[in-house]
Design brief:
Number of helices: 5
Structural class: alpha+beta
Strand content: 25-35%
Helix content: 10-25%
Radius of gyration: 18 Å
Largest sheet: 6 strands, mixed
Shape: globular
CATH topology: Nitrilase/N-carbamoyl-D-aminoacid amidohydrolase
CATH superfamily: Carbon-nitrogen hydrolase
Strand order of the largest sheet: 5-4-3-2-1-17
Order of helices and strands: EHEHEEEEEEEHEEHEEEEEEH
């Protein structure tokens, strides 16, 4: 792995029309690749609108297999631009079995790995349990980094970002970076102070994963208002705020709330230096953590 790595991410709107959404992704990917990005991250479910605002079984028709047309489109881009590309699919694995899946394409090698979202939310406007089966720690290798030509990628997806266990397990398995394709936003009726608290917490928790594990972190979120097709709510305002931070949580680049791209040159030797000064992995009391496998410690 090189001592430096140019990384980029695309923050965009998305629509029910896959062609339109992928065209938006393509424009950002090509701009970043033209500026020398070797690793590019796309947001969660970038090829469609965020369809989980309502429970509608007709929307399963949006799903595709891992080798379907959207994946082929991303694979062809990775070959053409000679990049490592991390995309997101609504995956149809079998009849009645669907996943929220991040896919990694490595230059000429095609798809080199995938990660099926492990933590699945179920909240008003985010009815993901209706659509997605969580990844399986045994069958899907769980929290296992994906080997690429630019390093070992600890790819997680959205709701996974709130769980320190997921980031730590990726770090313990040798990840060089943590990547979080994301779809998160506000309910429009929330007042401004509440909106700010939510966004600050979202940024803080992911920066903290960088700090606790001594790793750079890349987070790609979507932007724009997406209406609730059921009209049960006032929809979601996706807040953007995508960012890239270093292994001490330092913000290296951060987006606003518009369609944009971020590009950063990472010093890939910093994690080693930071971990020598802040040896959290060395001082872990692994002998005392057995209760972490319990749902709750009743006393």
């Amino acid at each position: 792995m090189s001592s430096t790595l140019k990384v980029g991410l695309v923050q965009q709107q998305a629509w029910p029309d896959k062609a339109r959404s992928l065209q938006e992704s393509d424009a950002g990917i090509r701009e970043l690749a033209g500026k020398g990005a070797e690793l590019i991250l796309l947001q969660e479910l970038h090829a469609t609108h965020y369809f989980c605002q309502t429970e509608d079984d007709s929307l399963f028709d949006l799903a595709e297999p891992l080798d379907g047309p959207s994946a082929k489109h991303l694979a062809d881009l990775a070959v053409e631009l000679d990049i490592v590309l991390v995309g997101s699919l609504f995956e149809r694995r079998a009849a009645g079995l669907y996943h929220n899946t991040a896919v990694v394409f490595d230059r000429q090698r095609g798809r080199v790995g995938h990660y099926r979202k492990m933590h699945i939310p179920d909240d008003p406007g985010f009815y993901e349990k209706f659509y997605f089966t969580p990844g399986d720690a045994e069958e899907d290798a769980g929290f296992e980094p994906i080997e690429t030509s630019v390093g070992r990628l600890g790819v997680l997806v959205c709701w996974d970002q709130w769980y320190p266990e997921a980031a730590r397990l990726m770090a313990l398995a040798g990840a060089d970076l943590l990547l979080y394709p994301t779809a998160i936003g506000w309910h429009p009726p929330d007042d401004d102070p509440e909106k700010q608290r939510q966004k600050d917490a979202w940024t803080l928790i992911q920066r903290s994963h960088g700090v606790a594990n001594g790793l750079p972190v890349m987070v790609a979120n979507r932007v724009g208002h997406e209406a609730d097709p059921s009209n049960a709510t006032s929809g979601i305002d996706f807040w953007g705020g995508s960012f890239i931070c270093g292994p001490q949580g330092e913000i290296l680049a951060q987006a606003g709330d518009d369609t944009t791209q971020l590009l950063v040159e990472l010093d890939m030797t910093r994690s080693e230096r930071v971990r020598r000064a802040w040896p959290y992995l060395r001082d872990r009391r692994v002998d005392a953590y057995a209760d972490l496998t319990k749902r709750y410690r009743d006393r």
